[in-house]
Request: fold
Amino acid sequence: MRRDMEVSELEQIDKVVKGWLRESRDNVLRKIDTRLTVNTKTSRRDLVTNIDKENEKFLVAKIREFEPEAKILGEEGFGDKIESTKGRVWIVDPIDGTMNFVKQRNHFAIMIALYQDGQGELGYVLDVIGNRLLSGGPQLGVFDNGVALAPVEDTPLANGLIGLSGPMVLNNDFNMVDIAEKSLGMRIYGSAGIDIISVLRGELVGYISYLKPWDFGAGKILAETVGLKMTTIDGQPLGMLSSTAVLLATRNAHRDILTIVNKD
Reply:
């Protein structure tokens, strides 16, 4: 049975995690202009650097010290093999948008999420260069650099910009071209974290991409807390350990997009 975490406990954890993120950001910025060791994973567009690995090791070590019994899911494999959502699970993305990090030294994020028995408790999405942290959860609320996030307007697709995956648009997966055309314009940022921040702040009405748990774990908590919808591309519930095409949007835009996805 899930044990709801007390607000006081969440506030203490929140303070600790923000300290980790400050230190993590400082570590990355100190090394950002050094010579990177870059390797490919699944393809030449799927990169990992020495800093991705070092940052994940740093964050995993912090979590292990803080909460030795917790399970950790990390993108670069320095956590645990997670097969169940039972108990306390941390999800870590040490550098989200590694291609941007390598080629632009900008437009990348660090993300941390805390789940209890499959339910989101705390999420953190940090725009490293912009020094903007979206943080919080259902019991604490959501904050933008420590200030309560302004309510997100329920804008329909036709009245807003949409963040999309470049490959999905090129392949016209799920009628992506029509989705782009029905919006005021598409934006391709190359980082789930940066897109999620933009949706939370009302700069985009939605975001669609193929994502893994470390890409959406933190954003899912924040989005659902403020009344946005994050589901699979066909509108089904998104599990914490899912790897699939993900749709994040305002409720109106979500409805509009599903109509396009399901046409024909």
Notes: Helices lie at 7-31, 50-66, 98-103, 166-170, 176-182, 192-200, 213-225, 251-261. The first strand starts at residue 38 and ends at 40.
